[in-house]
Amino acid sequence: MFSAIARVFASPDLRMKILFTLGIITIYRIGAFIPAPGVDYNGVQQCLALGQAEGGLYNFVNMFSGGAMLQVSVFALGVMPYITAAIIVQLLRVVIPRFEALQREGAQGQAKLTQYTRYLTLALATLNATVLVTMARSGALLGCNPGDIIPDDSIFLVMLMILTLVTGVAMIMWLGEQITERGVGNGMSILIFVAIAAGFPGSMRDIWTVQGWRVFTIVCIVGLIVVAAVVFVEQSQRRVPVQYAKKQVGRRTVGGTSTYIPIKVNMAGVIPVIFASSILMLPSVLGQFNQPAPGEEAPQWMIWINTYFDGAHPVYMAVFFLMTIGFTYFYVTITFNPNEVAENMRKFGGFIPGIRAGKPTESYLSYVISRITFPGSLYLGLIALIPLIAFVLIGADQNFPFGGTSILIMVGVGLTTVKQINAQMEQHNYEGLLR
Questions:
Q1: Quick one: which of 13, 297, 382, 396 has the most CB atoms within 10 Å?
Q2: For 251-279, b where at least 16 C-beta lie within 10 A, e where not — what string?
Q3: Cα–Cα distance, 282 to 285 (Å, whole number)
Q4: Residue 356 carries which DSSP code?
């Protein structure tokens, strides 16, 4: 391992890219602890010490901000507005023909879609910042009294806080783009990885402190098994062979090559888990905004939500599992178009051995996709349930490190980044990161 690291830093170009990436990560982490204007830092720490911050949605968003949201820092919104905007723009390709046309235009069209994503990110950041500041003013964010977090709630200061939080999101987008252009890996993915990994030591420390070393050891062993399983599945793919016919161009014969279409077992990535968890959090959010007055009895629908939509209830787990499977099929359907793939193959003279070009190829690809998506959806559903099962067994929360969105993102980004470093090393030394 140390020899591999030494080979990485032996290349001056790669060394500068890695150091630049680490510098951007340092700036990002520092911003997660700088309080927003008007926020009483001591009051925030006292509220956090009471441990009254709501779970569910708060823990989910706080995980993607690297703990910055509950600190009410300048980077409190983290990367969630960008993630949401990117997902919305990708889904709109199915609804808006203009977006689909831009997707097919290559680099120029992708740049236009990226610009739309930035605009939508800022719009969502403004909405999220308004909600966050409102909840911080009322004390609902951390379960404390009004005025404990924001002592001075004048209109000017509130507007300044909202502007600061939105600017923080814009700053995060810029930092991510700098990593993509001048560093190693995809910038926003690296920042998401860092935000999630930042809470990893704290989660493990809490398990050690509360549950003891036996449970800690079991969690580590199970975690290693889960990581190994995730790496195995993420690297698994179904290779559909493709043969290109020979063509006579002048005196030369071109074509006749063999290749394949790589179809991953988990084509949807972490998106279905985010979809399912976000939708299942909506009833809890509605319940929080419809709390009964002191002395009044809660309505029946709120009692039903609090009973069955608790993360530890089997009904919630079953619905979460089934929704993850459903969203996996939905997302794969809108991102992989068998008709488009078959048409492109026909244009370039490609065919699948034993399958005729055109409609039969489209039907065959649809058949393969539907079959390969089934085990992939079951895999995502099981991984998503790990934090909920850990909550029942050891009292963990949504920040449990070995499961759900956290482990999928960390392993996926880690594998992609290692591949990019390996590719750059092979360009310089003809020898990869791993021999």
A1: 396
A2: eeeeeeeeeebebbbbbbbbbbbbbbbee
A3: 5
A4: -
pLDDT tens digit string along 381-409? 888 888 777 766 766 555 566 666 778 88
Average pLDDT over residues 39-48: 75
Q: What global pTM score does this model have?
A: 0.80
Answer yes or no: is pLDDT of 286 > 90: no
- Residue (of 19, 166, 57) closest to 397 by Cα position: 57
Token duo for residue 31? 């911003």
The residue that leads in pLDDT, 185 or 28, is: 28
Single-letter residue type at 147: G
36, 73 contact by CB (below 8 A): yes
Q: Please list the alpha-helical segments (H only) found in 183-252.
A: 187-198, 200-211, 213-235
Instruction: For residue range 160-206, list pLDDT tens digits in order.
Output: 989 999 999 999 999 998 998 888 888 888 888 888 888 777 777 87
Interval 299-331: pLDDT, tens: 666 677 767 666 667 888 888 889 899 989 988
CA distance 373 to 419: 24
d(C-alpha 207, C-alpha 219), whole Å: 9
Mean of pLDDT values over 108-133: 88
Are the CB atoms for 172 and 191 separated by under 8 Å? yes
pLDDT for 2 beyond 90: no
Of the candidates 371, 365, 372, 367, which has an alpha carbon nearest to the alpha carbon of residue 345? 365
Distance CA 428, CA 432 (A): 9
Cα dihedral 158, 162, 163, 165 sign: positive
Structure letter (DSSP) for residue 258:
E
Domains in the chain: ranges and CATH: 13-196 (1.10.3370.10), 226-402 (1.10.3370.10)
- Both tokens of 161, joined, read 């806080």
- The residues pairing with 350 across neighbouring beta strands, listed in sequence order, are 244
CA–CA distance, 163 with 157 (Å, rounded to integer): 10
Terminal Cα distance for the chain, rounded: 10
Neighbours of 300 (CB within 10 A): 8
User: Quick one: which of 361, 327, 366 has its CA closest to 344?
Assistant: 361
CA distance 43 to 165: 19
Q: How far is CA 416 from CA 78, 410, 420, in A?
A: 22, 10, 6
